[in-house]
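Figure 6 in text form: structure in, sequence out.
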């Protein structure tokens, strides 16, 4: 049976009408996934610096080694001590007080059974650049296993509603860092604050000497507190 051209026209019209009723839907744009935020579950394993410039100071591999290192004090028995505070004594009495302060400081450190040798780092070996690498080198030259570096800051108060004209109140804030010479790792830090109130004594030449004496005695108490903190740390770590 032959199909004429006139019979195809209705079929084409029906096809065009059916397809023309469909709506065109544009393709949806693909939204990229959000970036990882520190603290999300996907970023808990971040172990590298996000700032590439940090590598010039310390590599990520070195930081990982440092954080994973555990220093044991069982074989650390020789201690060197370094005072980073510059002091000037303008009277013999003050010099004696400071000398006694240092002796008391060393005495507390030597009481630790962990230490077999405690000695101060000679000033001839103290480097001009007081950075950790240079301090380690100086301590290593006297074969010290540990280096205790400390500093102190003094504040004195002469005018207060609770103070009499011949009284002075001095406060000393002292800090210490215990450094392992072999690894360069800081094993412990301590801070102590001590206060002293004094009245002008008859032996004081003037009130300025009274103030200096109060500052020296406050410094002595703070240093003893630092020494006790170090001894306590060693006792805890070597149990």
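Output sequence:
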């Amino acid at each position: 049976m032959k199909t004429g051209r006139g019979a195809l026209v209705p079929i084409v019209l029906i096809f065009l009408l059916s397809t023309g009723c469909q709506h065109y839907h544009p393709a949806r744009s693909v939204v990229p996934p959000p970036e990882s935020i520190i603290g999300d579950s996907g970023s808990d394993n971040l172990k590298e610096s996000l700032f590439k410039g940090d590598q010039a100071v310390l590599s990520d591999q070195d930081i990982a080694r440092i954080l994973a290192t555990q220093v044991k004090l069982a074989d650390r028995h020789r201690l060197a001590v370094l005072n980073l505070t510059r002091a000037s004594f303008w009277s013999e009495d003050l010099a004696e007080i400071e000398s006694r302060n240092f002796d008391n400081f060393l005495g507390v450190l030597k009481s630790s059974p962990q230490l077999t040798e405690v000695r101060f780092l000679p000033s001839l070996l103290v480097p001009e650049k007081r950075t950790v690498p240079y301090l380690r080198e100086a301590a290593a030259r006297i074969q010290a296993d540990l280096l205790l570096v400390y500093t102190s800051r003094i504040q004195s108060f002469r005018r207060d509603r609770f103070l009499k004209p011949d009284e002075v109140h001095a406060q000393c804030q002292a800090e210490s860092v215990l450094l392992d010479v072999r690894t360069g790792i800081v094993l412990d830090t301590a801070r102590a604050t001590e206060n002293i109130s004094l009245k002008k004594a008859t032996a004081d030449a003037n009130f300025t000497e009274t103030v200096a004496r109060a500052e020296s005695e406050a410094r002595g108490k703070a240093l003893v507190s630092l020494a006790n903190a170090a001894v306590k740390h060693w006792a805890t770590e070597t149990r």
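Caption detail: Residues 12 and 18 are 10 Å apart (CA to CA).
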